[in-house]
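Blinded run. Sample ID left blank on purpose so nobody reads anything into the name before looking at the predicted structure. Input follows.
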Amino acid sequence: MKDIFKKVKNKNGKIRTKKSKDNKIKLKSKKNKLKDKSTKKLIKNKKLFVIFSLYVVLLLIVILISFGILNRFNFKILKDGFNKENVTIDIGNVKNNLKLWDITINDLKSKNNSLIINIDNMKILLDSNRIIKNTNLNVNATYQKSTYDFIKDVDSYTIDFSNSNILEVFKNIEFSIKKDFIKNKNIDIYLVNSDELLIPYKTVEAVDNKVSIDWTKEFSNLDIKKIVFVYVPLNEITVANENIIINKNSSFNLETKLLPINCTNRNIKYSSQDENIAVVSDTGVVTSVAKGQTKINITVDNENIKKEINVTVNEVATSINVSKNAITLEEGKTSKIIATVEPSDAINKELVWTSLDESVAKVNSDGLITAVSEGKCDIEVKTKDEPIVSAKISVTVNKKSNEYSNTNNVTEPTYIKGILIVNKKYALPSTYNPGNNPTALAAFNNMKAEASKSGITLFILSGFRSYQSQVGLYNRYVSRYGAQVADTFSARPGHSEHQTGLTFDVNSVEDSFAYTAEGKWLAANCHRFGFIIRYPKGKESITGYQYEPWHIRYVGVDVATSIYNSGICLEEYLGI
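Blinded prediction complete.
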């Protein structure tokens, strides 16, 4: 051992052998070499693992992509879905399926994200609630003349979804349309179902050459296969009446129609050339303002067709002025009311007269009021046509006095409008004794001769009667019938028309004379010779005497004809 190990002393004074130290160094060196070798091997193995892992991942991606050409978009959706509200995929011109993984769909739904697909001229927003795994993007878009009857031969842009299921899952589709296709900002959209039936959908406005459609239940319920965009031009504007004549302060509906009935632009605009004459509403109702003429213009937005309507506005009545607002009459008496319409150029000037109680007073079409019985009532006069304006006349009727006027003080006969008048109110002096009037007698003879040509025989049964003759006749009637009855058919002395010499009783004094040929001829023709039926039927309350078809009175041809044509009696004609 002494030979092998050589003792040495270290600096601390301890003794150790040199051989032992060298051996340790060698052993340590050997261990370090082994350790380096193992580390290098481990590092090499890790590199191989990483390379292998990357290879596996790459292989997995290739395998996933091999499931469908668009599956590469799933990675983009998943990646962008973490940070973006909307995920956009640009498909380009590829026409095939968009295949989504379940994890992609769940991610979109859970985050309520929107998936936007850009393909060709369409921007499609998918509904995350209805999104499906496989969405077929195979759509065809063509510009052509439409072949559908309703829009035949009209330029159309048709999107065919027959080989796609986009319409089942979309929320909104925005279509980009050629600028030269948009003839107008408005475009009609029609839907076409699987039976090729055309269904009008709606009219939309193109903004920057783009049109947008939102999903509705119609797309599912109607089984839509195509969407057609068209612009149907306006050809004509028609109205029910091109020349309107209306009264002031009234309205008229233009009843505008656009042809063809399915033209795209239907936004009608109305305007008046003179709103001081007439105005027009947004719905085509013309309202007149003042008398005059103007035109109504009808146009349609962005169309070059215009229609002009001629409007004439007439002035209308605003009030009725009457000559009397109140009158008092005795039973059987009359009074004529003059009514004038204001303004004088009003178109509706024809008047209608009405008694509100005909048992008290009546009125004819000329405003002649006849008192019937004691009482009060109103007479109304109003315009016949619209607008209706009216006025009222208050009428008071007093009971008729049966007393004859006192003849003792009568010294002269009474003439009204140049006509000798004798009745219960107006008497003749007892000395008045002219005999038969020569003019009246000559007129009767002419009438008699004319009647004979028709086989009618007329003769005078009673003509002039003096005051004294009437005394005896009247007293006999009173003794037989009493004064009250006698006064209805026989005049008291001084009040008889026979005393004038202008009156004749013809042929018979029986009521039945009215129904004979002679009585009928006399009633229809006596006015032509200057005679009137002095006591006509229906005028008893005015004349004071019963109907006497045989009793004629000479008043001259002009007056007789006027009385005959108006259907009034002598008292009414004279206004007494």
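Unblinding after everyone has recorded impressions. The chain has a mean pLDDT of 85.
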